[in-house]
Amino acid sequence: xxxxxxxxxxxxxxxxxxxxxxxxxxxxxxxxxxxxxxxxxxxxxxxxxxxxxxxxxxxxxxxxxxxxxxxxxxxxxxxxxxxxxxxxxxxxxxxxxxxxxxxxxxxxxxxxxxxxxxxxxxxxxxxxxxxxxxxxxxxxxxxxxxxxxxxxxxxxxxxxxxxxxxxxxxxxxxxxxxxxxxxxxxxxxxxxxxxxxxxxxxxxxxxxxxxxxxxxxxxxxxxx
Length: 224
Ligand code: DX5
Ligand code: ZN
Known about the structure:
Strand order of the largest sheet: 1-8-7-6-5-4-3-2
Bound molecules: D-xylitol-5-phosphate, zinc ion
Number of helices: 8
């Protein structure tokens, strides 16, 4: 099943509550929240206080993408703020097993994210500990960047690895997703699609989410 996760990084932060209600009414399946620390990535965004505020107005699950290093000390606060799923970066933690277990202990679904240049083979030992793999298709830090084409091949191989293991893991792709390329990304095997600028730059969120979903479904159909 195709899931669309609007990234609020490209929303109008002065009207954040309204923006979240609008994308939910427009068909969002998750609200993707990008947390940046100015250290792991060269940008600063939001923390647990804002997540708590978002939780009060949102109905869909909060999909937190933590770009923080070190990350462990912050996980309980984000869980308590109302995260449903927390993804951490492989590159941001020394003891990945500990970090993934900590997310689970805090009552959240568990995600692990890989930067474009990080090989998927590094996840081999921990795949059974996660509910989601996030493949970054831009270098994290900013919205509005272009999709890196070689990530398509990673998505294919990641989907194959998940299938071989017989695991029910979501495969989320994050960065540079548009109406025009979502088909190719879905055909490669992704099932959760983050879209920030593609959605929030438009006036009609429902039309854009509908087009994203339709194009992804059309491309995914032959695989089933
Ligand atoms: C990048 C973030 C993405 C980003 C997506 O560091 O993780 O979620 O906001 O934005 P677009 O869809 O504009 O590439
Ligand atoms: Zn993200």
